[in-house]
Amino acid sequence: MLVGTLDAKRLELMHELVPQADEIALLINPLVAEAESRLRELHQAARMMRLRLLSLGVNNDHDFDTAFATIAERKPGALFVFGGAFFDSRRDHVVALAARHEIPATYAWREFVESGGLMSYGTSLTNASRQTAIYTGRILKGERPSDLPVQQPTKFDLVINLKTAKALRLTVPPTLLAAADEVIE
Description:
Layout: H1 2-17, E1 23-28, H2 35-48, E2 52-57, H3 61-74, E3 78-81, H4 85-88, H5 91-100, E4 105-107, H6 110-114, E5 119-122, H7 125-140, E6 157-161, H8 162-167, H9 174-179, E7 182-184
Parallel strand pairs: 1-2, 1-3, 3-4, 4-5, 6-7
Antiparallel strand pairs: 5-6
Helix pairs in contact: 1-2
């Protein structure tokens, strides 16, 4: 599963950025169909990196209070926010909470980093929307959906916000800076 592979890579990148973090909190919407399988795959990747994961289910606005109270109490070394419509629609709130709690966070989409988040690794939402529009147009012109090829993204961007890293008193390793597709200063 491509998403699971991306999750593992994001975890690896966060571990490179914050190597002292031995526990990483996960914000995940448990109502998403693939949540359980993605968690399983991420726990497997974490074991290989000798990391502990703290899964925090968030599927309504009240859950953020509970999740971040747990983060404040447990003090994990980093935060991993799963991608998805629920978190995407609350991007500024999630980024603000991570900043308020001074926790390094990684996200699935660059838009979070543009809003002040620390780091993202994933596909472009703009490109995905463009591809969806192209397919919609083809269907509206009469093509059958079953005749259209399944396409998966082939380009993934690593975006790092140095201003946020500085606010968190983090030094971004030169290897990560060199690998970044975009560095926001």
